[in-house]
Write a structure and sequence with these properties.
The protein has helices spanning 25-36, 69-79, 107-122; strands at 4-10, 16-22, 40-47, 53-59, 91-96, 102-103. By secondary structure, it is an alpha+beta fold. Helix 2 crosses helix 3. The longest helix has 16 residues, at 107-122. The N and C termini lie far apart (42 Å).
Length: 123
């Protein structure tokens, strides 16, 4: 079993950072809290027909945070919903399993999120 899971942090400016989050629950919570600047809550869970699962995690307190257009576009591609009004501040995308534990993102999810980050720049 790997010691870390691969996740992506999408900043409000569209910058995407690879995160390697510990599988240890305590360390994982601390790393995610540090990346988001607050305790995390799940914005959406995406269950794909291919069996892969992706979670979008955001800070519990988002007041005053700018919208995250890149994360909203990524969720639109992953989920088929438009959520721009709900997404403020940085967003962490990670895989998850049936037990609810975080897992590494699939390559397809990574590609989708990276593709979504270039769309606002194309305008």
């Amino acid at each position: 079993m790997p010691d870390t899971v691969h996740a992506l942090l999408v900043a409000t400016d569209g910058t995407i950072t690879d995160l390697h989050v510990s599988v240890n629950d305590t360390a994982q919570r601390a790393q995610i809290q540090q990346a988001l600047g607050d305790d995390a809550e799940a914005l959406r869970y995406v269950r794909r027909p291919d069996g892969s699962h992706t979670a979008a995690l955001i800070a519990e307190s988002r007041d005053g945070q700018p919208p995250n257009l890149c994360a909203a576009i990524a969720l639109h591609f992953l989920l088929g919903e438009s959520l721009i009004a709900d997404i403020q501040g940085p967003v962490i995308f990670a895989g998850f399993n049936r037990q609810g534990a975080l897992t590494s993102l699939t390559e397809d999810a990574v590609r989708t999120i990276h593709t979504a980050s270039v769309i606002p720049a194309v305008r």
